């Protein structure tokens, strides 16, 4: 079965830290760009960060730049999102996603999606 499974969400105070993990099953991540998206209640899903395959180019949304770090471990078929200095406005469901080779902001171009993990940041 081809799937992504995200984990690591939780409740943290403002200024806190979380690390999200996403594991791929049934396919190898090394040929895929992997991304994190998030969706807050009543809002559209938005891109948070992405890392391409090959040259490992990374992109970040302006709202998280300097606070979040995306990484991957192809040998373990894992991807991570390290989130530091969390803010209440970071509260959302976070979804991992994968598409071949290059990053994209267009959600419809992603082939695989995780089930979402909830991050709640209290003020």
Defining traits:
mainly beta; seven-stranded mixed sheet; 51% strand
Please give a structural write-up.
By secondary structure, the protein is an all-beta fold. It has no helices and 11 strands. Strands 2, 4, 5, 6, 9, 10 and 11 form a 7-stranded mixed beta sheet that branches. A hairpin with a 4-residue loop joins strand 7 (68-73) and strand 8 (78-83). The termini are far apart.
Question: Secondary-structure blueprint of this entry?
Answer:
Elements: E1 3-7, E2 10-13, E3 18-25, E4 32-39, E5 46-51, E6 58-60, E7 68-73, E8 78-83, E9 92-100, E10 112-113, E11 117-122
Parallel strand pairs: 2-11
Antiparallel strand pairs: 1-3, 3-8, 4-5, 4-9, 5-6, 7-8, 9-10, 9-11
N-to-C series of helices and strands: EEEEEEEEEEE
Mean pLDDT: 95
Unreliable stretches (pLDDT < 50, length at least 5) are none
| Range of strand content | over 45%
The secondary structure category is: mainly beta
Oligomer: single chain
> What share of the residues lie within helices?
under 10%
Helix count equals 0
Instruction: Tell me, briefly, the overall form.
Output: globular
Let me know the largest β-sheet. 7 strands, mixed
Radius of gyration: 13 Å
Q: Separation of termini?
A: 40 Å
Number of strand elements: 11
């Amino acid at each position: 079965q081809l799937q992504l499974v995200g984990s690591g969400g939780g409740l943290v105070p403002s200024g806190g830290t979380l690390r999200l993990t996403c594991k791929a099953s049934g396919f190898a991540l090394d040929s895929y760009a992997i991304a994190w998206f998030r969706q807050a209640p009543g809002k559209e899903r938005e891109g948070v960060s992405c890392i391409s395959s090959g040259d490992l180019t990374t992109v970040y949304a302006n709202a998280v730049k300097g606070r979040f770090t995306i990484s991957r471990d192809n040998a373990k078929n894992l991807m991570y999102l390290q989130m530091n200095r969390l803010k209440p406005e970071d509260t959302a469901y976070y979804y991992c996603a994968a598409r071949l080779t290059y990053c994209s902001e267009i959600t419809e171009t992603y082939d695989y999606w995780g089930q979402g993990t909830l991050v709640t940041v209290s003020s």
